[in-house]
Amino acid sequence: MENCVFCGIASGKIKADIVRETGNFIVIRDINPVSPVHLLIISRKHFKNILDARKDKDFDPCDFFDLVGSLARDYSLEDKGFRTVINTGYDGGQTVGHFHVHFMAGRGFGWPPG
Ligand code: 5GP
Ligand code: ZN
To answer: Most buried of 5, 9, 56, 78 (most Cβ within 10 A)?
Structure first.
C-alpha cells in the first residue's frame, strides 16, 4: 500500500535493519527500541491490523508461532522469557497501520501495561 512505511520496508524501498525474512513475515529492529531486544514482526502483505489479517484465507497463524519460537531460540530466551505485543487501533496505541507484532526482551516488563 502506498504511503505505508512497513510496506516500504517489506518491499525494500525503505531501509531497515532486517533480522529475519520468511515467506509471510519480515523481522526488523525497532527504530526506537524500548528494551535491549525490540524487534518488529511485520506481515509482508498489508493488513491494517490483526482483525484484517485474520480475515485473509492465506494468513496462517502457525507461521507466526514458528517464527516467534525460532526468535526465542536464537536469542536464548526460552527460559528467561520475552514479551510479544500487538497494539490495535487507537486505544491499543497502534501508531503504524500495518499489522506487526512487537517482540521484546532483555529486561523485565511490568504488568499491567501503561
Ligand atoms: P505501534 O505503536 O504501531 O504498535 O508500533 C510501531 C512501531 O514501529 C514503534 O515502536 C516505532 O518505533 C516503530 N517504527 C515506526 N517507524 C519505523 C521505521 O521507519 N523503521 C523501524 N525500524 N521502526 C519504525
Ligand atoms: Zn503496509
So the answer is: 9
100 included as an active-site residue: yes
Q: Are 100 and 46 in contact (CB under 8 A)?
A: no
CA 85 to the chain's CA centroid: 8
Q: Which atom of ligand 1 is nearest to the CA of 8?
A: 19
Q: Give me the domains of the chain, ranges plus CATH numbers.
A: 5-105 (3.30.428.10)
- pLDDT score recorded for residue 70: 98
- Do residues 24 and 63 lie in contact, with contact meaning Cβ atoms separated by under 8 Å? yes
Entry pTM? 0.97
